[in-house]
Amino acid sequence: MATLSVKLLEELVTCNICLNQYDEGIRKPKFLQCSHTICLECFQAIRNRYTIACPFCRTSTSNGHIYEIEWILPTNQYALDILRLMRTALKVEEDNQFIAALAMRYCREMEEALDEESVLDQEQEQEQVTAKTDSCDTSNSETFDQELKYWNL
């Protein structure tokens, strides 16, 4: 379901003629009179002097048959807003992935440090046991067994 939504959003921010994403510059999304949207670059490439036929529905858009007058088409702000939101969401997702990677690294480092500490603790315990068993009188096996039980060995 999420993939469908992402694809739909990508279609809304992409010129269906050149298949490039809209932007604030030469690929600014422009509404034709029929409400279809194309980028400014494609508009400039397919327009005639006074008219443009919509590449999707063939509706004619005119500038009033005045050659000297500049074409004034409204910008599709909705497409630009969606594009900004998508970029923000992508940035947030990248930040979250970075934070998760840092957390995993920290956890691994802590785990390694604890493992090293545990090994040192085990070595120290083993040295203590060895010292204690060396000091035990092993001639009396009953006392020796009691000592081992006492030290949980």
TrEMBL record:
Keywords of the record: Metal-binding, Zinc, Zinc-finger
Protein's name in the database: RING-type domain-containing protein
Superkingdom: Eukaryota
Family annotation (PROSITE patterns): ZF_RING_2
Amino acid composition bias (Acidic residues), ranges on this chain: 117-126
Residues annotated as domain RING-type: 15-58
Gene3D superfamilies with a match to the protein in the record: Zinc/RING finger domain, C3HC4 (zinc finger)
Region spans: Disordered: 117-144
Lineage of origin: Eukaryota, Metazoa, Ecdysozoa, Arthropoda, Crustacea
Organism for this UniProt entry: Daphnia pulex
